[in-house]
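Support request, please re-run this one:
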Amino acid sequence: MFAVTGQALTLRRAVVSIPKPCLAVLLLFSICSSSFPFDRVNVTATDLNAMAPSAYRFTFVCGNSISADAQIQIIFPQNYTLTNTVLASSKSLNGGLAVSVKGDTVEVRRSGLGVVLEAGELCDLTLATLLNPSVMKKQYRYELLILENGYVRDRDTITASISPFRSARR
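Re-run finished. Output below.
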C-alpha cells in the first residue's frame, strides 16, 4: 500500500520525492498493474453429476502473452479427484501439452513447439478425466496460474459457476 501526500509517495516508512508528472504515470501504472490477470473466465464440464467422470474446459483471456514453453496450473477446490487427469487439449495452445497432477493441482506444460498466445487472445484448455465432487455446488473457487521459466507470472483466484459443455458444431 502507498499514500500520496503532496509530491511525495510514502512506501512503508520510506519517503521518495517524485515530480508530479512522474507521480501521475506511477499511479496510473499501479492501478493498471493491480487489475486481474485473467478476464472472461468460463468453466464448463461434460457431466455435472456428483461423482461422475468429466472433462472440464477453462476459457479465459490472459492479460499477458503465454509463451510456447509456459506452464499453466489450475488449483482445484477440495473434493475433486484428479488422479486420472492425464489429458489436456487446446485449440489456442498448439505445439503439444504435457499434464501432471500434484494433489489438488493440475499442471499443463507447453512443449515449446507452439506459437506464443498473445495478450488479449482467448485461451482454452480442456482437462480430462476428473471425478466430480460427491456434492456438486453452484459455484467453485479455482486458482489459475501462468508460470514462465518456473516462476509465477500471473495468478488469480476465480469463482465460477460450472455450465454444461457444449461442443462447437459447424
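Residues 141 and 159 are 4 Å apart (CA to CA). Residues 3-33 form one domain.
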